[in-house]
Amino acid sequence: MKFILQSVFRGLAILLPVIITIELLRWLFLKMETWLAPLLSYVLPGEWYLPGLGIVSFLTLSFFIGFSARFKGIGWLWQLPGKVLLRIPGTKQIYGMLHDIVDVMSGKNFADESVVLVKLPQSDVELIGIVTKKGGITGDRMSELLEEEQLAVFLPMAYNVGGYTIIVPQSCTRSIDMKPAEALQLVISGGLGNNS
Fold it and tell me: Which positions, given as ranges, span the membrane (predicted)?
């Protein structure tokens, strides 16, 4: 009986991540298609519209926005809807949280050399963290709270989109050669994944 249960759980461990990933991608593609299909059907002659054109259009639009956002003259335009959402009560919290999650998961706002090991006081234990701020930067609210030799370090938590920001002396950290996105993936998976 134990052998059967172990085999079932091992099978679930293999199948569930695949099924959930496929279902999330299917849901995302269906959303893209159903969102853009009516617009494309209205703009294009009936025989020109093919299933899947909504997905292609959405990806093309994403590429165009991402490419044009590099230029300062147009980049502010793409940030305008987000700024408006941040001013509307209720949507501010939802949009702000989702925006922050995407930024953290992409490692976008972290410098490449910002992954560190933080040594806990009076212990041999070290935690993987990402330096978010250094002390002494004027005009930055978090940085102004820090002393010159202090760092704000984000410590992500395993199996959770969250973590803690701690203030530590720079002497308690040791840089490691890892990109922030890799460190986040490694810590969030609890080190169990096949991160390479």
Answer: 12-29, 49-69
